Amino acid sequence: MQPKWALAVAMCFTAILIVVIIIQAIKHVSLSSRRVMKSGWGGPYGCFVKMAALARALHYHRFKIRSYFLPYSFPLILVTFMFTWITIWTFVTFPYYRPGMEYGSPPLGVRAGYIATALVPLVFALGSRVNPVTFLTGISHERLQVYHQYGARFILFMSIVHTIPFIVAPYQQGLEYDGSRETARYFLQYYYDQTEQFWNGIPPLVALVWIIISSMGYFRRFSYEFFVIQHVISTLFFLVWMLIHVQVSLLSAWYYCFVAVGTMIWSWFGRVLWTLWANEFKLNRATLEPLPEGITRVRIVTPVRWTPAQSVYLRFPTMKCFQSHPFTIASVPNVDVHSNTNVMQLLIRGKGGITKDIHDKAKNGVSSTYCLIDGPYGGLSNPIDNYKHVTLISGGTGINATVGILLDLVRKMEKGETLVEHIDFVWTIRSIGSMEWFNDTFKSLSTHSTFSNVNLVIHVTGSNPAETVAVEKSESRYSNEPVAYDEQLYNFAKGRPDVKDIVKESTKAAQGVDLAVVVCGPSIMNFSVMNTCAAIELKIAAGESELPRSLFAHSESFEL
């Protein structure tokens, strides 16, 4: 009857997946019709709107412990609930041990082993860029990463619970035999030598510990390329040894490992085939242009199409061909949906690894190189065309995400294809030299008649007076610092913006209409903006007046 534990876990997560599919379908229909939002607080939809605001507040809010950012509150609540349920379910069932090892394996260890094995295919499914969960729900893979990471930690916890009884049982049996610790150690050594599952379970456990440790932010920031390569190797090692271990000890749970293998193969081959098809089975030529502050502008003419704020993984065959790196797209595709000449623009900061190699090539006069595009992935979970007021906030190269949205919205505003009436665009840079990254883009946008509805604010944080805009005409709407501005294009401000005040000002300006907020920048910027949006959502749920009719917030991070 022990396999029932794995089956129960599998059925539980299958039920959750079905519920999520239904919710996503309802969400898609409501966004398409917009009936819910148009109804306001009155009518039969008022309660639904308030519940939706409360749910969004949980998705936007997160806690911070010193410099460590916890997951958003809704995923945190969900993973905490699942962990608590699995743990209690494991430990409230008795017995834990048998009278002796000759009567069979400890029930506690077997239960935990089955549960851990049942979680393996789920974690594999959630970790891949091309995965069945995204295919069924439409939720992008980066939003599933928190469940992938914490799922792996659940497996480690249950694996430890699985391991300890197999150590305690023979040792305790030796103590009961004659009370001697030497006899207890002999019993433990004897069962270790004579029982294959005792020793073949150690390699996958060690591999799992390493996988979780090496997936922490420090290793990812230290070298993204190193993280990816070792992660793939460690994962393959873990899965192979799991097959060996389960075949010996939990044969009926072997099928779960085969599901994990199938998911991994489907993901890898699916991604390869999708990449080749999207690139029309040929390499793309990427032009390179060095820019200030270690930035390289990459332009690729490609048949691949994308939506604003999406990202791609680029692979350069002439530079570390087995590695790929994610980059956010800073342009929009051709208006013609059948065009094969979409100009994909990316701004890449040369930190190390591939990104440094690209920048070095550009500085040394190499004007182009070959690449393969994997993607696009991610992007906005909701279209913001139906929101009358839009606020876009970015810091540094985080503008890659927001400038694509700006380009798309201005183009649609010009053609009357969107409900957006006003856009606040706030960009924080270290020095005025960073303006060169998108100066031509902003000048091109200023030729559109609808650009008068765009409030373009540039905050310069550099302390060098030569790089700071002098004060002459007015004060920034978002800062107490005096500013000078080009009346036709830019509003410059000195110092870091108070992003909380930016969101609150946008909330006042969008009273009674729909507001969308998108932020992409350092973690602390995203944290402040999203928590402020969560607080506003709670006020909307409470029915307070002088607030937007609805609020949508989206956070993108350029940090690994």
TrEMBL record:
Chain ranges passing through the membrane: 6-26, 69-92, 112-130, 150-171, 198-219, 226-247, 253-274
* Catalytic activity, EC: 1.16.1.9
Location in or out of the cell: Cell membrane
Q: Which family does it belong to?
A: Belongs to the ferric reductase (FRE) family.
Q: List the protein's name.
A: ferric-chelate reductase (NADPH)
One CC-aspect GO term: plasma membrane
Superkingdom of the source?
Eukaryota
Location of the FAD-binding FR-type domain: 278-383
Q: Which organism is it from?
A: Wallemia ichthyophaga (strain EXF-994 / CBS 113033)
Q: Which reaction does it catalyse?
A: 2 a Fe(II)-siderophore + NADP(+) + H(+) = 2 a Fe(III)-siderophore + NADPH
